[in-house]
Amino acid sequence: MSFDILQDLIKDKKNPTVAGLDPRIEYVPAHIQKESFSSHGETLAGAADAIWKFNKGLIDALYDVVPAVKPQAAYYENMGWRGMEVMERTMQYAKEKGLYVIADIKRGDIGSTATAYAEGWLGTTKVGQNECTAFDADCVTLNGYMGSDAINPFLDVCVAKGKSAFVLAKTSNPSSVELQDMVAGDRVVYTVMGDLIERWGRDTAGKYGYQALGAVVGATHPSVLKELRRRLEHTFFLVPGYGAQGGTAEDVQHAFDQFGRGAIINASRSIMCAWKKTGRDGLDYQEAARAAAEQMRDELKQYITIL
After folding, report:
1. Catalytic hit among 13, 56, 95, 106
2. Which of 4, 25, 139, 240 has CA 20 to 30 A from 162's CA?
3. Spelled out in words, what is the top-level CATH class assigned to the domain 2-301?
């Protein structure tokens, strides 16, 4: 099961972190932009080429430090088909380097549409007599607020292909309280969603006891992390909001079980844009990204022991 693979990688590297690959062209160092623009102009093709080179360099710098990467689809979709090609190439390259790949797509549709998304991102697409893979992610992010109709098509593919999915439960953005903290009977909405995630994923637990459906729980809500960790003992957590959004190592320790398992912490800009703080105009972007990832790992080690 896919979360078993992720937990094994976390144990091997003693590092429960995922590097978000959410690149905007302004995050790419000038020398890479210049090279790509000289061939393709200041066009979507030029931006896509620069971002591919940037992503490849980041993966080369990080693959032996972090267990996983998480490309966010929006940053590729805004370049049209060229950007989606870069996302596919980035995911394939990351997998070649032994990294676990979480496609951050936050899909939330139903029926045949959800099935098509699941086929494209996690499974296979039937073409004549062939079953063809498209993105072939290890895991995706989903919005479950349309209910099980939005989740079951993905869960079916997860079970069939040994993949996994993270479903939004309590997100790190400030306005999440407008819906997710509303009282529903004797519970608040984020606990309702957490309970649903655990119920939807029942009977899919792997060797570490975690089911095929995980939950997204933001680092900016440490008390909620603690509450949901106690409540959802079979649910793996993806924890965004570390670093640039204000979450700290002390906050996110509550996402883990007593063995230091069951969660992975995301950082994006603090790793991708670390070069902006070194004063070397991005010529050292790989070294800067690696140093930032190692610093994050070492900060977490002060609070989390992975057994």
Report:
1. 106
2. 240
3. alpha beta
